[in-house]
């Protein structure tokens, strides 16, 4: 055998880093079977391992190249050819076949026909690549001592795969981060050793146990905290659908996917989880943020809400739907809505109480044909408030843009507290309905919640608040579907206590009804995300499927229907006129995601008329939620921000000034402990402090020489005095006799002059 | 040497007086005088390597006269016999017996001039006296006087017809150093002093031999802390491990360094040895005890430089290291 230079450069530390680096390389190979059709990935891993070892052992080139070639041919044999490798038909055949292939493929490469390369040759190229990567890693660890770029690209690679492919990288990312920490720290240690060698403080490389303990402890602590800390759901929704929508133009119609969030029609069976979908539905130009109302439903079945809308034909200039009564002050406002392409709604979404539709700016299409300005028939369900349009022939249309006039309300709280509670009979008929199977305990709970409250408004607020205080958790996944014989509200209130807006709003409506307070269930969208502020003070909001939402409207005689928001993490945008009221209208509006209702499928509306024009409201709020508990909103209040910043600054100052503080500590420490026997420790502490302050004693420097130097630097004479005494004590074996007391001020002066 | 400019630190009154007395004759050689006294007080011997005429003899004579010591000078030549050094027994016709006639070595202070000019046999006779404190002639061992100190010189210029001292014998000298030329002003001072009459004539004893013997006893009482001993050992050890060194310091080197340290501390009126003493003395005590390897000899490396490197690197104990 030839002279194999089997003495690898570097220390055990190097080897350790190299092994870690190889583990990182492994992370690159792991997901390949999931995203491609590659099988037998372990062969590639073994090959990479083989190359890494050869490279580490610094096998000379004339040996390493044949060895790697043989290795890759063996790999190819396993992957593509038959028979035992060592038999005549096996390995030799493979070599022959492969050389033929290689020749053929080389010609292909030179003629630029890369698509025609055969599979074995591609595999061979991958082997080659792996060997090269191993060499590069060796080089970067042993020569340049830089690995950060590789680490970073590993992280990017894994996260991109995790985001856009089925690869599940939760464990991989933890492994990578831990390995990465180790590599970076160890490399840093090597660098520091080099520097120390350069200035002659150390002669040999070493493996600092203190360094390792700290490292391991820090990594354990960091990962431990990471594991234990609460993890909010992603604040950005999955970018893939959005990108796909953007790139491929895939629309987001109503109720598109089965499990997607969005505005649907059928609410007969509520429950179950859903997944987020952030495809936009429409944009709206409006004065203020408010909820977008689609319709309300009033009949609760025990599993969901049904309505049997009866539409009445109305003119575009008077839609004939009222929510607010005489005591509610309103202001006329305008809104322009533009639906996103591919979104098909034939009914309108509106804030507040819709008044009229501007025919000028109305656009739509019928059966995929751009709707000419043909006349439309507008129809309103006076009970549910659903306003829709169709062609005179009764064909369904898809609205693309419309302008609305609406009434923006301000609800008088004082009035709401004092108005009579005598509801009109038709209100009572429609909005106090409850299924007979509703369990008793729901009503009992309602009584319990409001037992201290006197008037309707406070009772309603108590019920609304109940959900934020009583251990309910907002979540959109893992929400169980009620059984056939189970009541939706009962299940949420007493069994699961986890859910999303439908659970909260339905429960609130039902609880109120058991108290004989008329309430109805409203669906629509939250205000959406403000994407642009216009010069005239108006804003453009973008509303997405994820903003689909449901809430509650409660009837107050002479005031009308007032919106309430029981869902955790959402804020009611409705304006309440008096300040005495403790409605938590918060500063924060939009954080995080918004909401929606679960999947719905179909639509079941039939135009019909209804008499009771009740009063309505516009309301809205929006919010966000993480995994229950306080929303992001609460986490970013000025107070918490202030406190966090303060403590951060404090920590920084502490870190910055640590040596100062330390020195002050020792000043006081030795002042209090002035006995002579403390002198030695005090002197040694002084040496330690001096070293900390960048004035270390040289290796071959005697105390006297050092003292001279220190005194020169600090222009004092104290160090020499202290040193003479210390020499006496330390080398001469004397017990100090009162000298320390005399010198103590000198000691303090020294430390103070260091601090200044 | 880096600490050549440092002022003398001798504060012991008797030693101080002694040095002042010698300085009446020798101009500007305080450091060398001190080193000689350290050798005297710690029972060691000195090898001076220098050109002729720089005052070696004057210094030794002044020292001897200052303490009222018996002084002899031996000029070593190739034909000098061991008995010329140690003494010889002669037959007395009168008494019909052999009488021992003591050689020059049987005195307190001996100047062995150009020691490398004589044959190894004669050198060995002298050097036995250095180490043992006794000489053996005619099968009889005779004690030398106390105090006893040899100051040997060798001329670094002329190597023709010389017998360089072997390592084993160099090791017996406590110190090796140079006296060196005086500066211009010092030389002028020398001329002024000898213009009328040589000052050596006027030197009178300021101490007695008994004083020296007492001081030698006191030197042995100077405390050497374990840490300082450790430091000495580390230095000597480091010379053995230095890459340019073929043969490093022996344990005798460690002993010499410690004893010299004690004497130096004593001269500073201190009752314990500090690392500074050791560090200061190490070059004088060690440089003649190491042998460079051939690579180092071909390069610029010198013994002095090696010792200097070593003392810069060896850690000096200064307390519990855990406090660092």
Summed up, what is this model?
The complex is a heterodimer of chains A (756) and B (324). With 756 residues, chain A is an alpha+beta fold.
If you had to describe this structure to a student in words, what would you say it looks like?
- Chain B: Belongs to the MoxR family.
- Chain B: GO terms for molecular function: ATP binding; ATP hydrolysis activity.
- Chain B: Keywords: ATP-binding, Nucleotide-binding.
- Chain B: Residues 238-309 form the ChlI/MoxR AAA lid domain.
- Chain B: Residues 45-175 form the ATPase AAA-3 domain.
- Chain A: This is Transglutaminase-like domain-containing protein.
- The complex is a heterodimer of chains A (756) and B (324).
- By secondary structure, chain A is α+β, with helices and mostly antiparallel strands.
- Chain A has three domains: 12-228, no CATH class; 280-625, Roll (C8orf32 fold), CATH 3.10.620; 656-755, no CATH class.
- Chain A is 45% helix and 14% strand.
- Chain A has 23 helices and 19 strands.
- In chain A, strands 1, 6, 7, 8, 11, 15, 16 and 19 form an eight-stranded mixed sheet that branches. Chain A has a four-stranded antiparallel sheet with strand order 2-14-17-18, covered by helices on one side. A three-stranded antiparallel sheet of chain A has the order 5-9-10, with no helix packed on it.
- In chain A, a hairpin with a 2-residue loop joins strand 7 (353-366) and strand 8.
- Chain A is flat, with a radius of gyration of 38 Å.
- By secondary structure, chain B is an alpha/beta fold.
- Chain B has a domain at 222-316: Helicase, Ruva Protein, domain 3, CATH 1.10.8.
- In chain B, helix 1 (13-23) crosses helix 2 (30-41) and helix 9 (226-241) packs parallel to helix 11 (275-286).
- The model of chain B is unreliable at 1-5 (pLDDT under 50).
- The chains are: A alpha+beta (756), B alpha/beta (324).
- At the A-B interface, helix 20, helix 21 and helix 22 of A face helix 11 and helix 13 of B.
